[in-house]
Amino acid sequence: MHFENDTVVAEGLEGFFGNYRGTFRSESGQVTAHLFEQDGWLIAHVSMPMGMEVDEITDPYLGELHDYARKYGFETRLRIVYAE
Amino acid sequence: MTAIRVTITLPHHLAVPDGEYVASPTGESIHLEVRVDLSPEGQPALIRTSVSSCFDAADGVLGEAAAKIASQQARSLLRHTNRLLRWYRQLASRPAVLEVTRAQLSPFRFMIDGTGTPWSIPVLEYERNQLPMPAFASVGELGSAVRGMFATGNEPDVADLTLLDGEHAMNVGRFREAVLLCWSVIDSSFVRKFSSLVDGSLAGEWVGTRDFLKGFDFGLRHKMTSGLRMVAGRSLFDEPEGFWGTLSASYDKRNAIIHKGQSADEDDARHALDVARRIVQIVGTL
To answer: How far is A9 from chain B (nearest CA, A)?
Structure first.
């Protein structure tokens, strides 16, 4: 799994987005997902490099996010939100 | 194959009959339907229009493959919706009806058509924020920068804002405007820098030469190549990865839009945006 703790995200955004759980970075860096827990839901804020669309992502990422959600009890409460 | 319906709800109501609206000569269509949201007391509170379209997906498609299809279909529905909004705005003379973004329309709901059963990607959701903001390490840093610049009483650079306008225009399907906005950025940022280089490096030269190099008779692409080589020892013709070809094709598209009333597509807008970003980056190094 490519999960890590990003202290900048944790310190800067926790108040806005809920409790920071960690950051997932995909194999070649196409996907960054900051994970927050809010109201019993695990919310993955997913962003890609500038100009890249969701349908252009070739790195695997959904399986790992779902595995993480399952492991920590959010199996049916994972919400994925993509940066526009 | 399974027929999947993707549905969004507009932030406003369009005063047109419910039903199918054909989107292209190839037969694609979108379906409009009035939607009434009730207040907590059960009274009709908000009347809006929902828009949907249908597509065929292979049975059993899951994960990234399904997300890819969902993203493509969401973008297609957004393009059709925004083109419809532009026609509605013009024909109904309603200036307040503006194009919408994917974040404004989120969530995009995907159901197996006619069943109410969610598809393998039941919702696709977008937000405007990217976390953290790419140009800043932290919210605190961004906050300090906003506070500092706001306190100056000045406005941001027009070229920077225009580049963001170009990106927004592309995202909401205004491809011609996106190309023109990007070329406005390219023109203004490059020419401003080129003019200062001419004045600096040819300070002792005849003023007529300097005025010619900076003026309209010495075209933009001449400025970018031989002109730039003369004053900065660099030509955009030599930039790697075929940049000059991309720039020239985008410049021709810009001229065709202005002089021949040609249309533009998403690729044209994306190329113009790429060229504009690269020019801004190059200008910063000159």
So the answer is: 7
Those residues with Cβ within 8 angstroms of residue B162's Cβ, 6 or more apart along the chain or in another chain: B181, B184, B185, B188
Inter-chain CB proximity B138 and A63 less than 8 Å: no
- Parent domain of B41: 2-124
d(CA B82, CA B78): 6
CB B16 within 8 A of CB B32: yes
Q: Is B69 within 8 Å of A50 when comparing Cβ atoms?
A: no
Give the three-state DSSP class for B221: helix
Render pLDDT for B54-95 as a digit per residue (tens, 0 to 9): 999 999 899 999 999 999 999 999 999 999 999 999 999 988
Look up residue B125 and give its amino acid: E
Q: Are residues B278 and B160 in the same domain?
A: yes
CB neighbourhood size of A35 (10 A): 25
Residues B221 and B165 both lie in one domain: yes
Is the minimum CB–CB distance between A11 and chain B shorter than 8 Å? yes
pLDDT tens readout for residues B136-148: 667 778 888 889 9
Backbone angles phi, psi at B136, to 5 degrees: -130, 145
pLDDT value at A54 more than 60: yes
Residues in chain B: 286
Q: What is the CA radius of gyration of chain B?
A: 24
Number of domains within chain B: 2
- Alpha-carbon gap, residue B167 to B273, rounded angstroms: 7
Instruction: Pick the last residue of a domain from B124, B145, B166.
Output: B124
Question: At residue B120, does pLDDT exceed 60?
Answer: yes
pTM score, whole prediction: 0.78
d(CA A40, CA A48): 26
Helices (H), B153-205: 158-171, 175-201
Tokens 């526009």 sit at which residue? A84
Copy the structure tokens of residue B233: 């020892």
